[in-house]
Amino acid sequence: MPNFLLADDKAVARRALRSILTDEFNGGMTYTEVEDGVEAVEKAQSMHPDVVLLDLVMPRLNGLKAAQQILETCPETKILVFSMYDPKPLYDKLKEAGVRGFVPKSSAGLELVPAIEALLEGKTFFGLPASNPLGETA
Questions:
Q1: Angle, helix 63-73 to helix 37-47, in steps of 10 degrees
Q2: What's the count of helices (H) and strands (E) in the chain, helices before strands?
Q3: Residue 137 — φ and ψ, nearest 5°?
């Protein structure tokens, strides 16, 4: 049963993620929600989630820095960043930080589950907005 940490400063985004995950895993998962990057780091360090769904832009600590800090103490955790912003300028930094995937919020309904499945199988998943065809999956 996968264990998820959902980190987004917007409650509506966390609700949407939770709904997608609940539908996909038929309730066969556990999850915790937090509102900012500092809480994400603290919670990840105590719960060691399988996957952290991490917004890129959050108060107190952004998603990139939170990912780096989470992976320092929880290297087995898979980090999936999602954002409404084009991450292309940050791709190298995200990958260097150990982030395993990216999904645009605009396509979360289509790409979130395949991305999580890829991460749980030890693969990466980097989706991009339709206007940018440089996405990759491995």
A1: 20
A2: 5, 7
A3: -130, 145
Structure tokens given for 65: 């820095």
Bridge partners of residue 51, in order along the sequence: 4, 78
Give ∠ CA 55-118-29 in degrees, rounded to 5: 70
Which tokens go with 82?
A: 């999602």
Two structure tokens written together for 3? 């264990």
Cross-strand bridge partners of residue 54: 7, 81
Place of tokens 């556990």: 30
pTM of the model: 0.85
Q: What ranges do the domains of the chain cover?
A: 3-137
CA dihedral 76, 82, 83, 85 (to 10 degrees): 80
Model confidence pLDDT, tens digit, residues 91-112: 788 888 899 999 888 887 888 8
Superfamily of domain 3-137 in CATH is: Response regulator (3.40.50.2300)
DSSP sequence for 60-99: SS-HHHHHHHHHHH-TT-EEEEEESS--GGGHHHHHHHT-
Tell me the one-letter amino acid at 15: R
